[in-house]
Structure to design on (341 residues):
């Protein structure tokens, strides 16, 4: 894959002289959001820019090992006003790994106050919503980290990818592709992995840090949700699971603990689609996964005010848990009637 020449030149023009730059990633930042922000931040800093990485809320604890992650400003609970200060004075705002300002929640009004900054999108989600001054939107890319790696390679040369950048980029490339197993993985993704590996990163260490560093509570919560909460219907082809605030408390839930649970029903033969409902203080987070041609991006858009990718999407519900589940089951029926399932 290549980033278009014109876009590279436009970006080069924007970054010609040192600027004050803010990098933004989405709410509930994952390995791809954090990894792409940190790597892009490092290369920009090396080229003389003043860069601040801002995330709307805290990243999951198992990403704590990522190089320079402590430098990220977490907007929620940022008593020193560092995010506000950085956004107010930014000349350029980069949005990484999301495609609509609504994924910034409380941060979006702050961004609106800065009307002079150039806005640049670097993302791989379908159908970008907002207007940006420069859009690097590549839905066919398997991760935003892969896009950032390509950008650095094309703009500055692969030799500018340091070991710490490679570590951060590898995390997102690995997590967003389910360990390089999704259909979005191309030969060029493996070429890029080889470029990253050549910097001396330890792939086994990264793997252990990301996948084998959970708490006991998370393991028990997983057992509970699979054994007690997974419902399978539609002739064994559709599943859903739910977690109430009460259950989360019972298993000492921490941000990120339920990450990946939604994928598990898809390990069952013939399963086509899986949903996970997680109760938050004022809404229920909906996560959707599917196999093959089943389009959960469309499903999320239609029924849960959301979106994402064809096989991985999300949204929100403002109903009770019980009604959310009823709504989901009814929507599955409608989807099947239309031949979409
Ligand atoms: Mn991503």
């Amino acid at each position: 894959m290549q980033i278009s020449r014109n876009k590279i030149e436009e970006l080069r023009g924007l970054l010609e002289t040192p600027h004050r730059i803010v990098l933004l990633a989405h709410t509930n930042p994952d390995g791809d959001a954090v990894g792409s922000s940190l790597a892009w931040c490092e290369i920009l800093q090396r080229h003389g820019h003043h860069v601040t990485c801002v995330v709307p809320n805290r990243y999951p604890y198992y990403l704590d090992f990522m190089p320079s992650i402590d430098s990220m400003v977490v907007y929620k609970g940022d008593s020193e006003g560092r995010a506000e200060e950085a956004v107010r004075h930014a000349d350029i705002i980069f949005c990484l790994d999301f495609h609509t300002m609504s994924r910034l929640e409380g941060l979006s009004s702050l961004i609106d106050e800065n009307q002079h900054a150039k806005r640049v999108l670097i993302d791989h989600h379908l159908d970008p919503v907002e207007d940006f001054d420069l859009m690097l939107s590549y839905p066919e890319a398997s991760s935003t980290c892969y896009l950032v790696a390509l950008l650095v390679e094309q703009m500055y040369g692969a030799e500018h990818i340091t070991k710490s950048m490679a570590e951060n980029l590898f995390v997102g490339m690995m997590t967003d592709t389910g360990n390089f197993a999704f259909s979005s993985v191309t030969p060029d993704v493996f070429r890029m992995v080889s470029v990253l590996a050549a910097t001396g990163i330890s792939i086994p260490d990264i793997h252990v840090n990301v996948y084998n560093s959970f708490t006991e509570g998370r393991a028990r919560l997983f057992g509970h949700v699979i054994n007690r909460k997974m419902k399978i219907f539609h002739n064994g082809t559709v599943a859903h699971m739910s977690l109430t605030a009460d259950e989360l408390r019972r298993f000492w839930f921490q941000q990120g603990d339920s990450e990946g649970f939604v994928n598990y029903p898809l390990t069952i033969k013939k399963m086509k689609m899986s949903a996970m409902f997680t109760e938050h203080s004022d809404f229920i987070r909906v996560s959707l996964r599917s196999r093959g041609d089943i389009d959960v991006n469309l499903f999320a858009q239609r029924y849960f005010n959301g979106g994402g990718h064809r096989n991985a999407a999300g949204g929100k519900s403002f109903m009770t848990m019980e009604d959310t589940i009823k709504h989901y089951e009814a929507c599955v029926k409608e989807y099947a009637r239309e031949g979409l399932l």
Summary: Residues 219-337 form a domain with the Diaminopimelate Epimerase; Chain A, domain 1 fold (CATH 3.10.310.30). The mean pLDDT is 95.
